[in-house]
Every structure is written in C-alpha cells, then in structure tokens.
Amino acid sequence: MKVNLLQAIPIRASHVQTAYEADCAVLLYPRFKRAWMQRFLLPKGMSPYIRVRLEQHGTAVWNLIDGRRTVADIINLFTAQTAEADYPSRIATYLMQLQKDGFIRLLGSDISKLEG
User: Fold this and answer.
1) Strands 9-12 and 24-30
2) How many CB atoms within 10 Å of residue 72?
3) Could you give the angle at which helices 56-64 and 71-81 cross, rounded to 10 degrees?
4) Cα angle 1, 3, 9; round to 5
5) pLDDT tens digits, 58-99
6) Ramachandran area for residue 51 (φ above 0: left; ψ -120 to 50: alpha; else beta)
7) Residue 23 carries which DSSP code?
8) In the chain, what are the domains?
C-alpha cells in the first residue's frame, strides 16, 4: 500500500497544550498520562508538564496545524512566505517527528507504515 504523506491531515494531540513566549510556541506535554501517577510520582514543586519550546519556523508550522489543512497545504502556505528551496522536505520531516513524539496525529493515511 502506498502512503502519501502530502495528503495526510495533521491534528494536534488533545493532551498537548500550547503557550507562547516571545512569539514562540511552547508545547506543554503532561509528564504522566494518569492523574494518580502525577499525584503520587511527581516531586513537589516540579511542573506536571514537559515544556518543548519551538523556534520561529517550528512555531509557524505549528500555527498552521488546524485539523483541516493537509501536509501539502501547510508546505505551500509556509513556503509562500520563504524563499528557501529545501523547506518542503524539512517541513515533512518536522511533521513526521512531531507525530513520532506524540504531539500530533496524521490522519488520512497509514503513516505507521512509513516508520517501519
């Protein structure tokens, strides 16, 4: 079965929150999936979230993920704002990494076959 990443639709994971610091997105990923684990295993004073600060380009791509745009749409919108030719492959790789790390899901194709 052929997989077309460009037709997949990135969806932000529901457990990931977004904050902003100095125009850059900060992804807040829970340290524990279950509330009881957080209550008993999280050291006092430690944040219940792992913070992942995105740089300027990562933030721009993150902001384009709305659950309706395909990977191709995101690439086209992003590259229209920049002049560098290697961005399409970098954006595709970046989105695959976000999916691998659990920050997004890619709908519309069986992306797990790409990771094999």
Assistant:
1) unpaired
2) 16
3) 130
4) 140
5) 999 999 999 999 999 999 998 887 766 678 889 999 999 999
6) beta
7) T
8) 5-115 (3.90.930.60)
* pTM of the model as a whole: 0.80
DSSP 40-100: HHSPTT--SEEEEE--HHHHHHHHH--SSS-HHHHHHHHHHH---TTHHHHHHHHHHHHHH
- The C-alpha atoms of residue 112 and residue 96 are separated, in whole angstroms, by 10
Distance (Å) of CA 93 to CA 10, 48, 75, 99, 114:
13, 28, 11, 10, 11
